[in-house]
Amino acid sequence: MTIKELQAELKALQEKRQTESQVKQLKKQIKAEKFGQTKSGKVFNKIADVGDAGAKWLFTGKPQPAGSKKKKKKVPTVEEIMERLPQ
């Protein structure tokens, strides 16, 4: 076997692998599209949309109004805590 024959065989194998992966990916996309059109698929799509920007506050907390600031609580000292304890 010559180098050119080996290179041609290698190229053919690479192209075959690439086309197989593309076919697999396309089949997966077709399956996802078909599922997205079903009733349960539409429900799952709505659930998945929760992570979008519109509902991001569900996970990060509601945004505070621009003028409001949280008041910091004063941390009690050891002496203050000791005064509150029953004797």
Structure commentary:
With 87 residues, the chain is mainly alpha-helical. It has helices at residues 3-37, 39-48, 57-60, 78-84. It has one domain (3-84). It is 64% helix and 0% strand.
Overall pLDDT metric? 81
Distance between the termini: 98 Å
Describe the main β-sheet briefly: none
How much of the sequence is in beta strands?
under 5%
Task: Indicate the structural class.
Answer: mainly alpha
Instruction: Give helix and strand order, one letter per element, not per position.
Output: HHHH
Beta strand count: 0
Give the count of helical stretches.
4
Features of the shown structure:
87 residues; mainly alpha
In short:
Helices cover 64% and strands 0% of the residues. By secondary structure, the protein is mainly α.
